[in-house]
Amino acid sequence: MLKPVAIAIASVALLGLSPSFTALGIGGRMQTSSFGKTKEGNEITKYTLTNKSGMEASVINFGATLVSLKVPDRNGKFADVVLGYDSVTDYEDGKSYFGGTIGRYGNRIAGGQFTLDGMVFHIPKNDGPNTLHGGTIGFNKRVWTAVDRSRPDAEVLELSYVSPDGEEGYPGALTAKVTYTLPTGKNELRIDYSASTDKDTVVNLTNHSYFNLTGTPSQDILKHELTLRASEFTPVDATLIPTGELRKVAGTPFDFTKSTAIGARINQDDQQLKFGKGYDHNWVLEPDPKGALRLAARVVEPTSGRVLEIETTEPGIQFYSGNFLDGSVHGKGGIAYAYRTGFCLETQHFPDSPNHPNFPSTELKPGQTLHSTTVLKFSTTK
Ligand code: GLA
Predict the structure, then answer these.
(1) For 328-356, b where at least 16 C-beta lie within 10 A, e where not — what string?
(2) Distance between CA 184 and CA 180 in Å, rounded?
(3) Which of 132, 319, 345 to probe ligand 1 with, by most ligand atoms within 8 A of CB?
(4) pTM of structure
(5) Which of 83, 320, 323, 346 should be mutated for ligand 1, with most atoms under 8 A from CB?
(6) d(CA 170, CA 264)
(7) Band of the pLDDT at 29, cuts 50, 70, 90?
(8) Would you call 357 helix, strand, or coil by DSSP?
């Protein structure tokens, strides 16, 4: 005789639906452990997603943050390839956005203001004269609600956060959802974003992982070889706000259309590199009229053989070469993260879009749902 739970699972399977083991109360395969408490006393949990080959992604419900990502090198040796901290207090105090979900508006908004429907909205300036990554307390510093949505073919963690109307100066209550999916049979982490609002607003969601594919973050990332599927980038002013121009990368140190070491041209005498103190710019990805998932970036780390490919539905990608890391921040295992020991590839809409009508729009209206997907695919090369 089948027990009621087994019958429930069997019937769900027959109906072709994915059973949520947690919802059925029998516990998923996903491992959970305590990640401590925030200063306000919120319990933070670490959720660890694992697949058949041993790839492992850990996410906490503070900031919907990816805290570790373990992938194999060419000899099958696993290592953590993202920077981060060991404690929630460090994530609360941190200013580097390690692995966090960035919102309501990822990247910069000039002068801490934008106009929407003829009204001017003021948002906190937390990066010189500009707003960076949402404001004073962005989505990376909020407590999210996590639900295990694992299916037979994947471990799935869904996190949601409701940002109240007026939070950090943005109009409309925004319901944001971030879903991390680790398929059983593939070494890839899929990140799906969705958002809806009750008033016209602006949204730009991204993940701020810093990668070091050597797995040894005491080494810099300058020998990683990068390809970006972009023939243009958005040049910036001295405060890293786009001028509005889409500039061809050909003939500049911003041309990554062919695989090139990150460090090959980073110290060249170039005005844009000086403004960024290295690379800290948005590349315009080859457009896809249907907004389909397509390859945006490929990174090869020659010593370990690890390869990261990033697919996205987003129109842009911010490549940041860790220029603000200076050894003063101590991360996992107490390691000091020195200059350029991690790089970010933040899939996104362009910086300061609300103030640039020629950029793809970041407006979201009631009744619409924003959908965005980014996939981190890992493999190895000889
Ligand atoms: C983004 C920005 C950088 C920097 C980092 C965080 O990538 O573009 O200028 O602020 O976040 O340090």
Answers:
(1) ebebbeeeebbebbbbbbbbbbbbbbbbb
(2) 13
(3) 132
(4) 0.92
(5) 320
(6) 40
(7) confident
(8) coil
